[in-house]
Design brief:
The chain has a single domain, classed as TIM Barrel, CATH 3.20.20.140. Helix content is about 30%, strand content about 25%. About 50% of the residues are buried.
Length: about 375
């Protein structure tokens, strides 16, 4: 299949003013200037519109907090135990949720989704495509273990007079689980080397071993500057591959974060200061972090902000000082890099998945609409 007569913005390389994309077996096989050697009725005439990579929502709960928000539609927080790394997001994803249709309509082709922030260690997050017949088909790969600091764990367990009731206890529970998992892994290795009895099976520690091996990332929910630095401290202690999620007060310590070469998922953007942790929230956060040298992505935290407001969220960051091209990267290639899926998506490159969208104008223009969404080379939305 060809998409031709297109202005092609690969994001990671210069714009092709008039060119075509060849797609084979769901993958981009060619990007070129000019006209394809032959055109068939099944090929797509872009009619000079921009063609670009699908958008990536780098932190959300799509498929875990259902459309309409009823209790029956929520599978996001297992608030019966503050430490639940063994929870697998794929087992909770409602792939039939209406919001996936909203995602593909606006051009979001991939998302990171999973557990919420009630627990200090909540479980896994997964990177998914936003269209598919089942969760297994949508899955790209496991992305992270979700940690949470600050008021959310305190609020949940303080109401029940259980640990954690302070920030110190939240951090202590996280450390205890990581220390236990590290010792468990060491005991497994020693038993295998000495042909000795294996340690008793520990599901929680088993779930944390890929994290300790840096096979998946550590996503830390943190708003306040002190919580951000606690996430940094714990990650350095255990050698974790850290991603700061929300990072609301990151602009207050942006130089420290840049020195450590950290990255952050910024959002939700279109929201109020609805709790004390958001007292220093500002639309300038993304711009100030970028200026300091912190790699950023922009997320919706769906349903805090609906997934189809991802382009608008990036536009608000541009209004507050983030360069326009950097805002586009924050919802495409930088989001892919931070998520760990940039080998597959986030830009238009030969060999990557054909996750492609076609906005009617500038993707960050609130008046633009998406005309076409393609995931893995398959058209999942069309409006022309």
């Amino acid at each position: 299949m060809y998409i031709y007569n297109a202005r092609i913005d690969p994001v990671t390389s210069p714009v092709i003013a008039n060119g075509y994309i060849r797609i084979e077996n769901g993958v981009i096989a060619e990007l070129s200037e000019g006209t394809p050697p032959h055109i068939s009725p099944d090929d797509i005439d872009a009619d000079k519109h921009t063609v670009m990579p699908g958008l990536i929502d780098s932190h959300s709960h799509i498929g875990f907090i259902g459309d309409g928000g009823s209790v029956e539609a929520e599978d996001v927080n297992e608030a019966s135990d503050p430490v639940t790394p063994q929870l697998r997001a794929i087992d909770g994803l409602n792939f039939m949720d209406n919001c996936f249709a909203d995602a593909v309509k606006c051009g979001v082709t991939s998302a990171v989704t999973g557990v919420g922030s009630t627990n200090p260690i909540g479980g896994s997050l997964i990177a998914i495509k936003t269209a598919g017949r089942c969760a297994d088909e949508m899955l790209i790969r496991p992305a992270a273990i979700k940690f949470a600091l600050g008021e959310n764990p305190k609020g949940c367990y303080s109401d029940r007079d259980e640990t954690p009731m302070t920030r110190m206890a939240t951090a202590a529970l996280i450390r205890e689980a990581l220390f236990t998992a590290r010792r468990y892994e060491s005991d497994l290795r020693a038993a295998a080397e000495d042909d000795a009895d294996m340690p008793d099976f520990d599901m929680k520690s088993e779930a944390l071993i890929p994290l300790l091996r840096r096979e998946v990332k550590a996503h830390f929910h943190c708003h306040r500057a002190d919580d951000i630095m606690t996430a940094v401290r714990i990650s350095e202690e255990f050698g974790l591959d850290l991603v700061l999620v929300h990072c609301t007060e990151g602009h207050l310590i942006s130089d420290l974060l840049a020195e450590k070469h950290l990255c952050a998922n910024i959002g939700p953007i279109i929201c109020d200061r609805g709790k004390p942790e958001l007292a220093h929230a500002t639309l300038k956060n993304a711009a100030l972090l970028h200026e300091s040298g912190v790699m950023i992505s922009i997320c919706t935290d769906h349903p805090e902000v609906p997934v189809d407001y991802l382009p608008a969220s990036a536009a608000f960051c541009v209004k507050a000082g983030l360069p326009r091209d950097e805002a586009v990267r924050a919802i495409t290639i930088n989001a892919a890099r931070i998520t760990g899926i940039d080998d597959l998506t986030g830009s238009l490159e030969v060999g990557k998945d054909a996750d492609i969208i076609m906005p009617s104008g500038d993707i960050l223009d609130i008046m633009s609409e998406n005309l076409l969404t393609m995931i893995n080379g398959r058209i999942v939305y069309r409006n022309r």
